[in-house]
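Chapter summary example.
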Amino acid sequence: MRYELYYWPMIQGRGEYVRLALEEAAADYRDVAREPGGMAAMTKMLEAKSGTPPFAPPFLKAGKLVIGQTANILFYLGGRHDLAPKAEAGQLWVHQLQLTITDFVVEIHDTHHPLGPTLYYEDQRAPAKKRTAEFWDERVPKFLGYFEDILKDNGPYITGRRLTYVDLSLFQIVDGLRYAFPQRMKAFERRIPGLVGLHDRVAARPNIAAYLASERRIAFNEDGIFRRYKALDA
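The structure predicted for these 234 residues follows.
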């Protein structure tokens, strides 16, 4: 089947975790909102009054199914494209890990928008600086330390020798933090050598390497989740 991915066309955002899974699987998919008329098609589906309309992008159309929420989409793709364990217990475990990553992504976003997404960053500079300091002092060590410990026990991938969609998502986390906080991340990376190695292994996989070098990979920018503000990287 040919999948249809619906997400904002100008940012990586939460849709990027889905794109990475589709690219690694060499799945046939359309990034609909990046096509002519795609935004109108996405809006129409979001405004549907019947069926199972999604709350917000990203969502994936797979045949007659419309699947929303990043972790839910990855749970579906993982079972279909050998990006998750075969056993139910393993599937639930990687889904749990992905939900933890989802929590972390929210905290990353809130470094530059601690008072809410409807305000501009310029309207919340002081709270953002305070939030970012707490994020790097407390939250980054907690989240990345957790995944580092799991990787140390299992390696070379998060569940052992086989790559899962969680590994792709952790690649994106490391890559995004390097973009948004280059100085802070450079200093912190010596504490997470396993995750750094995982990032490099994922980046070197043929399908992912080809994707990263292509125009399909949207560049990081200051409209997405990972935003580079010099004042927050001091």
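To summarize the output: Residues 137 and 158 are 24 Å apart (CA to CA).
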